[in-house]
Amino acid sequence: ALPKILSQTAPAFCLGSCSFVVEKSKESTARVVVWREIGVQRSYTMESTLCGCDQGKYKGLQIGTRELEEMGAKFCVGLLRLKRMVSPLEYNLPSSLLDIENELIESSCKVT
């Protein structure tokens, strides 16, 4: 669910580049270990690029601090949306936080 949310809101995120397969070479990574040994259901690794983007509004550009901060903001909004989807009755937020979420989404998390 989180990758799908990010693909809808984060311009630098590409769902098509995601891999959810646990390869033998990845069995000792933190995300796989916490999933298998601790039982964390949603354990992800988010990677960035050194070569620049090949899709979306950042196509052909290098990733800088602004884009990384934007991705971090979108990630936080995505976690909030995921939490509200998973347990909407248990997760009542003050309306001011919901307003902040909507502002972040509408402004595309423009970092200055």
From TrEMBL:
BP GO terms, sorted: proteolysis
Active-site residues from the entry: E47 (proton donor/acceptor)
Residues in Peptidase M14 domain copies: 1-83
Assigned keywords, A-Z: Carboxypeptidase, Hydrolase, Protease
One term of GO molecular function: zinc ion binding
Cofactors that this protein relies on: Zn(2+)
Protein family per UniProt: Belongs to the peptidase M14 family.
Name the UniProt record assigns to this protein: CBPC1 carboxypeptidase
Organism: Heliornis fulica (sungrebe)
